[in-house]
Design a protein that fits this description.
Its main location: membrane. The structure is a single chain. This protein has one domain: MetI-like (MetI-like fold). It starts with a helix and ends with a helix. By secondary structure, the chain is mainly alpha-helical. 77% of the residues lie in helices and 0% in strands. It contains 12 helices and no strands.
């Protein structure tokens, strides 16, 4: 049984990771097509994408949108979780359900709804519109992580601080936020990861200033190239690096 379990585990990881491995390997292909036989290795495609001004601008746009939208989603999620944990309102369960509901909705539906709403209010497709869209999809994630981390000891500490005369902002800043720091960091970095490589909302809500996934899609329209493999490898490695940092620092420290 143990042999079968290990075989299943290896097959599962192989099924998941084999396409990524192929992507990374052929990003070092020396010929112009990322297909066998492998001809390399070379770093020419990485040098080419670094020298590509449009690609670097898209990279900076993705970083900017991911940082700002994740920070906004984190603050809003933290405030919503703190409020619902402090006061038991009529229909609190319904409110929590509404806050988490966007997690169950297709990004395409959210993007189309936002596009129509922005057209109605006069907001043209832009990085600002994309950032708002990413707040919409990341706010439920941040709220769910933070609210689930609020145990009775956090709530009791917040009540004690209020009883001792602390203002609400002091309770949130000096008591609640430090106690929930691992959860806040986890929520922020996960939101950043989702925003960093999100395509559908960015595709529909941008026009001239695009994010990196949209720029990669534009590159793919002209056919496969080791350059697209190199960009995809960078996107994948950044996402993996964020998850590894979380696992080796915050999650391990929390478990200890």
């Amino acid at each position: 049984m143990r042999v079968l379990a290990w075989a299943y585990l290896l097959a599962m990881f192989g099924f998941i990771l084999l396409p990524v491995v192929v992507l990374i390997v052929f990003s070092f292909q020396d010929s112009r097509l990322p297909v066998p036989p492998f001809d390399g290795p070379t770093l020419r495609w990485y040098a080419e994408i670094i020298a590509d001004r449009a690609l670097m601008e898209a990279l900076m746009n993705s970083l900017l949108v991911a940082l700002i939208s994740s920070a906004v989603a984190l603050v809003l999620g933290f405030l919503a979780a703190s409020g619902l944990a402090r006061v038991l309102l009529p229909g609190s369960a319904l409110i929590r359900g509404v806050l988490i509901a966007p997690m169950t909705v297709s990004y395409l539906i959210i993007a189309l709804g936002l596009l129509q709403m922005f057209n109605a209010v006069g907001l043209r497709p832009s990085l600002v519109a994309t950032g708002i869209g990413h707040v919409v999809i990341n706010l439920p994630l941040c709220f769910a992580i933070i609210y689930a981390s609020m145990g009775e000891h956090q709530k009791n500490a917040m009540r004690a601080a209020r009883d001792l005369g602390a203002a609400e902002w002091q309770v949130l800043w000096h008591v609640s936020a430090p106690m929930l720091l691992p959860s806040l960091a986890a929520a922020f970095f996960l939101a950043f990861t989702f925003s960093w490589d999100e395509f559908i909302i960015a595709f529909l809500l941008t026009r001239f200033d695009v994010t990196l996934p949209v720029e990669i899609w534009s590159m793919l329209r002209s056919g496969l190239s080791p350059a697209t493999n190199a960009v995809g490898s960078i996107v994948f490695l950044v996402s993996v690096a964020i998850v590894l940092v979380l696992e080796l620092t915050l999650f391990r420290r929390r478990g200890a």
